[in-house]
Amino acid sequence: MGRSVLVTGGNRGIGLAVARRLAAGGDRVAVTFRSGSPPEGLFGVRCDVTDAQQVDRAFKEAEAEHGAVEVLVANAGITRDRLLAVMTEDDFDAVLDTNLGGAFRVAKRAVRAMMSARGGRIVLVSSVSALLGTAGQTNYAASKAGLIGFGRSLARELAPRNITVNVVAAGLIDTDMTASLPQARRAAMTAAVPLGRAGTAEEVATVVDFLAGPGAGYITGAVVPVDGGLGMGH
């Protein structure tokens, strides 16, 4: 029957590619979405990951449909890019609360059943910005760097229960989020990538699929880049 999987922010971009790949492999996949509609062919639950009550409700709906969550992919995230001199407290807090606080909330809710089952997989979707830094993204980079410390600490906590926790550091990936970048900025970012192109959401999904699968049973606390070489050395 496959495993019960929950992907946050799974109605578009990287999250949707991950959800579809895991579903194609036979897993029972639920995705959370904050706005819009659930993707066709996947079980969708509306959820704002900044709200612990909504997170709990989303898990209950997923559990009722597919059973206790065995694989969690924490992907939900937002950007509010601004230079620090003009960044508001709300710009900073909203990004931290969604990207890092959201991962905290969903992971905390997921580990209960995983610890009882003495097994599970958690994959956190971070960014090369966490390693390199990006001008105009102090809030975003801080939130994504926080995922690395959070994930590695959680990996140590959960390893005795056979639960792995890993981080994927995505680079410049073709998504709706990057499509909105000014052409000049996107061209400059692409030029900085050693492979000379943006990646695809499917390429990120391939790595998440591996980390969530049986072949990665001896990998935990890792930060795996999917960035065309942009962050090498970091």
From TrEMBL:
TM regions (residue ranges): none
Top-rank lineage group of the source organism: Bacteria
Keywords: Oxidoreductase
Xref: InterPro entries: KR_dom, NAD(P)-bd_dom_sf, Sc_DH/Rdtase_CS, SDR_fam
PROSITE patterns, per database record: ADH_SHORT
Annotated SMART domains: PKS_KR
A Pfam family reported for this protein in Swiss-Prot or TrEMBL: adh_short_C2
Span of domain Ketoreductase: 3-176
This protein's record includes keyword Glycoprotein: no
Gene3D superfamilies: NAD(P)-binding Rossmann-like Domain
Similarity comment: Belongs to the short-chain dehydrogenases/reductases (SDR) family.
Name this polypeptide is given: Beta-ketoacyl-ACP reductase
Source organism of this protein record: Streptomyces lasiicapitis
